[in-house]
Amino acid sequence: MNTTAHRHDAIVVGSGPNGLSAAITLAREGRRVLVIEAAATVGGGARSAEVTLPGFVHDLCSTVHPMGVGSPFLRTLPLEKHGVRWIQPPAPAAHPMDDGSAAVLERSVAATAATLGADGPAYSRMMEPLLGTWELLADEILAPLHFPSHPWILARFGVKAIRSGRGLAESLFRDPAARALFAGMAGHSILPLESPASAAFGIVLGLFGHAVGWPVVAGGSQRLSDALAAHLRSLGGEIQTGTRVSSLSELPPARAVLLDVTPRQFNAIASGGRNPRRRRMENFRYGPGVFKVDWALGGPIPWTAPDCARAGTVHVGGTLDEIAASEAAMARGEISDRPFVLLTQPSLFDRSRAPAGKEVAWAYCHVPNGCDRDRLSAIESQVERFAPGFRDRILARHTTTPAQLEAYNANCVGGDVSGGANDIAQLFTRPLVQADPYATGIPGVYLCSASTPPGGGVHGMCGHNAALAVLRRELRD
Fold first, then answer.
1. Nearest Cα to 149, choosing from 139, 158, 135, 157?
2. Domain 8-63+220-285+418-473, CATH
3. pTM to 2 decimals?
4. How far is CA 477 from CA 27, 326, 458, 466, 470, in A?
5. Which end of the chain has fewer CB within 10 Å, C or N?
6. Residue 2: per-residue pLDDT
């Protein structure tokens, strides 16, 4: 990397939410920043396109953004000024059951507890103490490993969060619907529900649902990425799209480089020079992949449980036992005949995404990393199970295999949308066990992707935290 005349203080490679957040953090401190993106548009995992029929806007990866609206960094930005309008479905999430009912994550803890019958008080006891300090807790859990500023708040969360999703659900709840609701939220961990700390994902997502909701962005997730890009430009930052970086030596001169890439891509980009942590980076573990399907629909999904039509996200998987079996099969390198399916139906609440009277929806199930098995029929059968007549409403569909997802976004290695395995051995020490998790061992070069703390999700905190490290170490003056 040439370090002579510097037109830019920092180069950021990759324009996903983390890359753009890193660039914004530097630019608002007066640093000259250039973002280089391989694709024709910014956004990484937060892009939208018409992939089925004209007039149907589909999000290519992320749609629902509780972490986005609740992010300690993103909530400080004037995103609304640049066109972001958050839309809150009446209910963040629903979980249909075979008897025609549905457990519902409502906006308030009290309303959610009321739907859980005898398990309502236990749910309230879990969530209410955390809700009053949710901003402080978010600051703690979305930061790199550190000595906590609010140890009692973190301890109150951690005593339950460290448990397995299955263990916590079975110890707190007796009714199958309450257990299933928590299992669906914990299933976002992409871990077996028997794994330590899988409960943390269920608690955090439920808490964010009550604190800030699970909103979508009007017009599609691309609008969020475009707003981040517009804000960066308003601060003087530059963005160059359509330029793939294959080597650090190709980059313009700069005092610092931040790479919104995973360890595998980092090793490839650094292959032409000294990379003292290559072997350690090669040991980084990627998580399971996803098989995704986008639908253009002739009408709303005909859920048997009416409450499912109030939710932006529907967890389709039946009971806790069924979800646990599906996720355990994935971890063993197998697939389930009844997969746990995560589904979003944003056009019910955002009419700009589909023609009048029509709808868009997408769903995915977890699969072993790199799995080449077609999961379309299994996913649609699960939806049909709780919404008879669903298949009759499909006008067109577009499927994405793990290999196709990686081809679209190289950070999704083997279809992994989380930037690496989320198990307890790697969740807090990604990508390496070292004092500065963003440093690569190459002077002036840092990682800022979801492979660094705090991991996956559209929150921008990996990029923001990495940029703060760069300001401390490389750009002090």
1. 139
2. 3.50.50.60
3. 0.95
4. 14, 53, 30, 17, 12
5. C
6. 42
